[in-house]
Design a protein that fits this description.
One of its GO terms (molecular function) is hydrolase activity. The chain has 200 residues and is an alpha+beta fold. It is built from six helices and seven strands; from the N terminus they run E-E-H-H-H-E-E-E-H-E-E-H-H. Strands 3-4-5-7-6 form a five-stranded antiparallel β-sheet. Strands 1-2 form a two-stranded antiparallel sheet. It is elongated. The chain starts with a strand and ends in a 9-residue tail after the last helix.
């Protein structure tokens, strides 16, 4: 409805006509921030870059030193040095590209097929109840290494999160990365042929 206040046409909405709230999160609408969001790329702050991309350096090391669990033709699987949860690994292309849209067809096929293989490996080794799988594209989206594409595959178990991350800002890891890598590597080698994926 519209009402006139001091000669101005003002719209007043009836709250009863609003759609139901779908979650419990309050929102503060700040359209004036679009000038910040859409500012010139040259004015955007940037973080200091590491001297070398860890996903380019990893494949040049031994599997043990690089925490690599499997090497394919176009992509490889590597353990996360700073895991979100025990058993967290990533699928990375060898080629240094930042976005999934930059992969060619062969890379993209193996990238996604390797993600399926990683899930089968985790099921075989760790028997998780579910998975978090995702790609953070660009620094603004939370990518720790934005310049080199990587897909996270994180196994999850019912009750795997406890009070430690909240109270002590600490994640508890019940197995060493080296032992987890070795178990995953054995399973990758055993299960890859069934998905017609190469063993480098």
């Amino acid at each position: 409805m519209s009402e006139t206040h001091s000669g101005t046409n003002v719209r007043i909405d009836d709250p009863a006509a609003f759609p139901p709230q779908e979650d419990t999160v309050e929102r503060l609408w700040t359209p004036q921030r679009m000038t910040y969001v859409l500012r010139n790329a040259d004015d955007r702050p940037t973080r200091p870059k590491a001297k070398e991309c860890p996903f380019c350096a990893g494949p040049r090391k031994s599997d043990e030193d690089g925490l690599i669990t499997w090497r394919g033709t176009h992509v490889f699987a590597i353990m996360n040095l700073y895991p979100y949860n025990v058993g967290h690994l990533m699928i990375c292309p060898y080629r240094h590209v930042g976005f999934v849209t930059e992969l060619d067809d062969a890379e993209l096929f193996e990238f996604e097929k390797a993600t399926t293989l990683a899930m089968k490996v985790m099921e075989d080794v760790s028997h998780p109840d579910g998975y978090n799988i995702g790609i953070n594209q660009g620094e603004v989206a939370g990518a720790g290494v934005a310049a080199h594409l990587h897909q996270h595959v994180v196994p999850r178990w019912n009750g795997d999160a406890n009070f430690m991350p909240i109270v002590a800002q600490t994640r508890t890891m019940p197995i060493l990365l080296s032992d987890q890598r070795a178990a995953y590597a054995e399973a990758f080698a055993r299960l890859a042929p069934a998905l017609s994926l190469p063993l480098a």
